[in-house]
Amino acid sequence: MTQGVSRRRFLAGAAVLGAGVGASALLAGCGGGAGSDGSLQVSNWTSYIDPGAVRRFERDTGIRVTYTEDINDNNEWFAKNRAVLARQGWIGRDSVVLDDWIANRLINRLDWAEPMRADRLSNRGNLLPELANPPHDPERRFSLPWQVGLTGIAYNRSITGREIRTFDEFLAIDGTTAVLTEMRDTVGLVMRATGADVTRPSAAAAEPAFTELERAVADGRIDAFTGNDYVNDLATGNLAAAFAWSGDVAQITRDNPDVRFVLPESGGLIWSDNHIIPKGARRPAAATEWIDWFYDPTNAARLTAYVQYISPVQGVAEELTRLGGAAARLVDDPLVVPTPDLLAEVAAFGILSEEDADTLDARFAALAGA
Q1: What is the mean pLDDT of residues 3-12?
Q2: Is the dihedral of CA 243, 109, 84, 115 positive or negative?
């Protein structure tokens, strides 16, 4: 079984807006976590920001930024930083971007997140109302979404020879298949296929999904557990189908229409990645200004045009239209600007109890490493 890198590592040169613009700013200070130069220290996933954004932020705010693309996996990030956070030390970062479930762990289970500075959030009102009161942070004191994405099935029509609409059809493919290394994405998608309510997850509710997955792995109907490398493998024909994230597949579908993304008939998943200020951050006010800057619709639209995930910011569709060209065409893509019908097909994986989370994580790790 192969282990992937992250959901946000995109194909080289996939930018809609001027590939390579601002590359020096984007990569400035990689590995410079000590922050001895007094700059704002930001960690994010690979290729999860538009080129030139760091430079424009510095110009608009006067705040210097050391931007590092060093988050590859939520569990890996936690394992790397937990010892320092536990003793209330500084991990060398003032802003990080992490999934909902680990945001809940930092905010509620461990008290390892700093509140944002309310007086630096002039654009907070642009947050989509649907994202304003999540279970992990009901008042949005500690987190704001960076981007929102969907989990479904991607497949290469030239290999499958037909459309894929259900989990059973996915398992019946005569070709190599893969599911995701993120437990909540893979188990959640199969839970929906079994009729379970992913918004109220538990170990008991996930049992039928684990049974299906374990049987499929044993029978060879699932060949791999993978990160974003499914994207290139789908394009080159090394994979027939995979559990996938919408923004990743959007990049390659425009170059290879045989690769398609679909929400299963049983339903897909919706999730968000969150800006969080970790405990002990040295520049929490500047970190708040950082996320607030991206909540200006113009800046948010440039980010969306590059990463092609769903923006959490109101007014982005109008700004994409103003940008014109390929950016404007994204307004008609429901995977970027979702319609009510599409949103009715997805659900967010809810918060697991601490005991159930540990149980399911351990069971999934054993399955993925088989």
Answers
A1: 37
A2: positive
